[in-house]
Every structure is written in C-alpha cells, then in structure tokens.
Amino acid sequence: MTPYELYHRADRQFDLRDYLGAAKTLETLLTDLAADDEGPGHGTAHARLLLARAYYHSAQLGRAETAARAVLAESPTDAYAALLLARTLERGSRHDGARDALRLATALGAPGTSTDAA
User: Fold this and answer.
1) Neighbours of 67 (CB within 10 A)
2) What is the distance in angstroms between the CA of the first residue and the CA of the last residue of the chain?
3) What is the pLDDT of residues 37-90, one digit of tens each?
4) Which H or E run contains 7?
5) Which structural domains are found in the chain, ordered by start?
6) What is the pTM of this model?
7) Contacts by 11-15 with C-beta closer than 8 Å and gap 24+?
8) Rounded distance, CA 104 to CA 89, Å?
9) CA–CA separation, 10 vs 23, rounded Å?
C-alpha cells in the first residue's frame, strides 16, 4: 500500500472507533517512511497526531504522550497536539505536566481552553 492508502485506511479505522487497528496501521506507515532512504523527514505531523489520538483513545497513555510530543517537536504551534498532551497527562494523573501543556494549548488557541467568558 502507498503511504496515502495507509493513512486513509488508518483514518477510516479511527472513524470506526477501531483505535488499536488505526494505531497499528499508522505504526506501519511511519515505520515504512522511516525505512525510506531519505527517512521520514518533516511532514508526518498529521499521521503522528492521528497516532497520538488513537493511542489516547485506546488508553496507551505513554505512547500517546510520546506521539503528541513528537508532533509538537515537528510543529510547535499545533494547539490540538498541546491539548491532547495535556489531556493525556491529566488522564495519567500527572497534573503538573498537564497544567503546563494546557497553558501552552490555551496560548495557542486550542478550542475549549479559553478562560474568557463568551
């Protein structure tokens, strides 16, 4: 399968709430990209974010954290990745780290994080 087909398959699995299947497909995609002569390089943030979401929804919090941090390393202004990191850390009872990540998500304008009254 092409990288596009793998991503599309994983996206569909995620939509069907097959989070483990989506994670496995995305792991395959990212492994295949890393095995290319040129390596994955940049441009994998969307796949990594979907992977982080799949890990989060399948309660693989350590992996979700690692994947969310990888997205932020590649795309430091990704508000949703910061929010996902915050929620992952909260879910793992790591409240200090979650608070810092939530501050970042709020500063980046992640939906639902504003403390302003509408």
Assistant:
1) 29
2) 47
3) 555 555 688 999 999 999 999 999 999 999 999 999 999 999 999 999 999 999
4) helix 3-15
5) 3-108 (1.25.40.10)
6) 0.86
7) 11/50, 14/50, 14/53, 14/54
8) 13
9) 7
